[in-house]
# Entry
Amino acid sequence: MPISVTATTRRAAAAALLVTATLALSSGCHDGVGRKADDAATAVSPAPTPPSANGGGDPPPGPDGKAVCTPEMLKFHAGAMPRHHHRMLLTVTNFSDRPCTFAAQPYPLLRFGDDRQAPLPAIEASEPPAVVTLAPNRTAYALVVTSAADGPDGKRHRGRKISQFGVALTARATPTQVGLDGRAPVRVDPRTATVTYWQSSLAATRKW
# Structure
């Protein structure tokens, strides 16, 4: 029996539709060069993070041309001095791989509680012959006289108990909060307390 023209036309149209569908599926799964589209998307790298403002370089030099000590380079410790009444010891260790100096600010700027309060004044007689420079893994010291004699009877104000305080290394720096070692708080009278210059040895600090 001869095949009608109508049947032949229908079969041709069906074949054409099948080819079109196959091409559409192929183009949806590939990017035209033999790779899947999903693979091309995951190959795009994220944008690089912009460098920090200081470029991650060394700290700026101080007045003596050496790098200034910054909180990021240092570890702080503080606590009452055994057998030394009204005395607290502050130590700072350089854990970086480069030396630094306290030439920009030769004694620590200490604040207790209120950042608006002026930092403790320095004991001028404690100024060492040379500005302290910290080599890597070396430690410097400062002694805090937590209260001074007040009144004709020589009695001291008890002050208030503190368990941490602020330490700044330059006048414009934000104070670093340093907690006290041990469990016992220390009484400090910010009105009469004083601090020594940075010292290069514990023996030099004990004189005050």
